[in-house]
Specification:
This protein has about 240 residues and is an all-alpha fold. Helix content is about 85%, strand content about 0%. InterPro entries: DUF599.
Length: about 240
C-alpha cells in the first residue's frame, strides 16, 4: 500500500494525464454515438446515402459499379489493417531498444525524465491502442465482405418481389454497410488518439493538451465540417 501511495505521489501528473486520455477516448466515443441518433453528423448522413445507394442498386440489373465501389471500400480498410500490423511490429522493436529511445527523447525541450519501466508502460498503451484498431479494421473488412454477399443475393428487377420487400432488403444492406463504416471510423479515431499518446513520452501536460485537441478536431470534422454541410444540402435537394 505504501508503494502504491509513493508511486501516486511521484507520478501523479502521468496518472492524471492517463485518466484524462481515457475520459477523452471513451467519452467522445459514447458522446458521438448518442449524438448520431438525434443530430446530423457524418455517420448519420452517410447512412442515409448508403440506404439511397442500395435502393438505387436494386433498380439495376447490371451492378458492376456497385461491386466496384464496395471493393474500393474493402481495399481501403485492408490498407489500414496491414498498416496497423506494421506499426505493431515497429512498436515491439522499439520495446527491445528502449534505452536508445530514452536517450534520444531526453534531448527534446520540456521532456521529463522517465524510467525504463515507465516508457514500457507508455509503449504498451500504444500497442493496446493499435491492437484495438487492428481488430476494428479486420471486423470492418469482414462486414464489407458480408455486404458483398448480400449484394450478390439482392433480387433482380424481374424477380417476383414486392416493393416493400425490396425496401427492407435495401435497409438491411445499408445497415450492415454502416456497421462496417462505423468500425472503420473507430479504428481511424484510434489512430488520432495514438498521436496524442506520443506527447506522453515528452511531457504529461502535453499529453493532456493533445488529447483535448484530438477531441476538438474529431468533433469539428464529424459534426461541424464543411463536408457535412455539403452532404446535408445535397441530401435535401
Amino acid at each position: 500500500m505504501n508503494e502504491i501511495a509513493k508511486f501516486a505521489q511521484t507520478h501523479w501528473e502521468s496518472i492524471v494525464a492517463f485518466v484524462w486520455f481515457m475520459v477523452c477516448f471513451y467519452g467522445y466515443m459514447i458522446y458521438s454515438q448518442r449524438m448520431a441518433r438525434t443530430t446530423h453528423c457524418l455517420s448519420s448522413v452517410l447512412h442515409q446515402y448508403r440506404q439511397a445507394w442500395m435502393e438505387q442498386m436494386l433498380t439495376r440489373d447490371v451492378r458492376v459499379a456497385d461491386t466496384t465501389a464496395l471493393a474500393n471500400l474493402e481495399r481501403s480498410v485492408a490498407f489500414f489493417a496491414s498498416s496497423t500490423m506494421l506499426i505493431l511490429a515497429g512498436l515491439v522493436t522499439v520495446m527491445g531498444s528502449t534505452d536508445k529511445v530514452i536517450d534520444m527523447v531526453a534531448d527534446v525541450p520540456f521532456a521529463i525524465d522517465a524510467s525504463r519501466s515507465e516508457w514500457e508502460i507508455k509503449l504498451l498503451l500504444l500497442v493496446g491502442l493499435f491492437m484495438y484498431a487492428f481488430f476494428k479494421f479486420t471486423w470492418s473488412l469482414r462486414q464489407y465482405g458480408f455486404c458483398a454477399v448480400m449484394l450478390g443475393g439482392a433480387p433482380t428487377m424481374d424477380a417476383q418481389v414486392s416493393g416493400r420487400e425490396r425496401k427492407a432488403f435495401a435497409i438491411r444492406i445499408a445497415h450492415v454497410a454502416s456497421l462496417a463504416a462505423n468500425n472503420l471510423n473507430l479504428g481511424l479515431r484510434t489512430y488520432y488518439f495514438s498521436l496524442a499518446v506520443l506527447g506522453w513520452f515528452i511531457n504529461p501536460w502535453l499529453f493532456i493538451a493533445l488529447s483535448s485537441g484530438i477531441v476538438w478536431v474529431l468533433y469539428r470534422r464529424e459534426f461541424k465540417s464543411r463536408t457535412l454541410e455539403e452532404l446535408i444540402i445535397s441530401r435535401a435537394e
